[in-house]
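User: Let's play a game. I give you a shape written as tokens, and you guess the letters that built it. Ready? Here's round one.
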């Protein structure tokens, strides 16, 4: 037993793609150190802050992917949960003096409750009807924010709440909140991977492929979809709540609630690879860093008389379309397939070629058949 456990915990015994993932996390953890070698002074600190923001965008993308990427229930308004977590935590801290950590926990709970209130009735709908509900909900909340601007600050937002960790100086603040974001990023990644790689995750994927087959196996798809929706809302609310307690963000609609936030999160997950969690995280980070760097390019495009930074949205949109056409399954899926071809794996399985989803459904069918026979 101990030998088996030791073998599982040995990184060298993991598949190549998981080893590469661990190496990437280690390199990411040392970002402040290698940024210090590449850039001098405040320039390196500014790049660290850019990566910190990218970590939060990656968390937002993972939260969306955990429900839409796995169940196929596309949400166009996931920023609703980022805003409820962020605004809820900030208002609790500013208005009632709740300590930042407790405010983050309560903000996460508020986002989970919102996920339950919206998810239970909305997930009874399918296709464009569900998407329309998730699209309209944040628009309604935004109008409430504008209507009660005395509380929510309208389109300008509210003042920054107390920081999650007390710091002194620009450099210390940058380093501390990078590791706060990194620790939360790893935690969310681990939790979502554990859930989606479990039997429950296989059922969620099966719901996306054939909901009727899941129901025929004796399972209730609505319960699994509601669980995924609430989990996704909680993760998004947690990320939003912590985000507003960092110096890199503030409780404003443009950062938490605007429709562009929801759309960018969807683009990030699709680019990275829907239904993978890791791909969504990578897509979110890449999108955030790419847009940030693109907006700082001062090169003037010949014939147009405008800088690349002024055309960042156009260039980003064109680049996104090219990637979507070239790699419709997402960059991560393309990388996995390319890696398998490179090492000569033919993808043959000892289980007769059945996917994990098919294997899980077969286990449930056998269980319920056995129950009826008894």
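Assistant: Ready! My guess for every position:
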């Amino acid at each position: 037993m101990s030998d088996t456990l030791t073998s599982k915990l040995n990184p060298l015994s993991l598949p190549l793609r998981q080893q590469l993932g661990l190496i990437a996390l280690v390199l990411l953890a040392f970002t402040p150190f290698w940024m210090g070698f590449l850039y001098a002074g405040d320039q390196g600190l500014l790049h660290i802050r850019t990566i910190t923001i990218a970590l939060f965008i990656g968390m937002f993308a993972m939260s969306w992917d955990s429900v839409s990427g796995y169940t196929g229930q596309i949400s166009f308004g996931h920023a609703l949960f980022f805003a409820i977590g962020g605004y809820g935590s900030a208002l609790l801290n500013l208005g009632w003096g709740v300590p930042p950590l407790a405010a983050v926990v309560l903000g996460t709970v508020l986002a989970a409750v919102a996920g339950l209130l919206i998810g239970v009735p909305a997930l009874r709908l399918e296709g464009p009807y569900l998407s329309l509900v998730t699209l309209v909900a944040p628009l309604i909340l935004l109008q409430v924010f504008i209507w009660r601007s005395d509380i929510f600050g309208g389109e300008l937002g509210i003042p920054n709440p107390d920081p999650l960790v007390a710091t002194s100086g620009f450099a210390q603040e940058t380093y501390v909140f990078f590791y706060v974001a990194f620790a939360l990023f790893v935690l969310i990644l681990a939790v979502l991977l554990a859930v989606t790689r479990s039997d429950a995750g296989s059922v969620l994927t099966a719901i996306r492929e054939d909901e009727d087959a899941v129901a025929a196996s004796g399972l209730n798809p609505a319960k699994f979809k509601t669980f995924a929706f609430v989990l996704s809302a909680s993760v998004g609310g947690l990320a939003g709540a912590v985000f507003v307690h960092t110096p890199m963000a503030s409780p404003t609609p443009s950062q938490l609630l605007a429709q562009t936030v929801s759309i960018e999160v969807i683009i990030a997950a699709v680019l990275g690879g829907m239904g993978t969690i890791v791909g969504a995280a990578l897509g979110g980070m890449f999108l955030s860093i790419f847009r940030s760097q693109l907006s700082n390019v001062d090169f003037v495009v010949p014939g147009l008389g405008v800088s690349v930074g002024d055309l960042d949205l156009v260039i980003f949109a064109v680049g996104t379309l090219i990637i979507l056409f070239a790699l419709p399954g997402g960059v991560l899926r393309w990388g996995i397939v390319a890696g398998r071809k490179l090492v000569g794996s033919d993808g043959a399985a000892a289980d007769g070629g059945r996917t994990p989803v098919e294997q899980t459904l077969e286990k449930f069918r056998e269980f319920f058949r056995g129950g009826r026979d008894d």
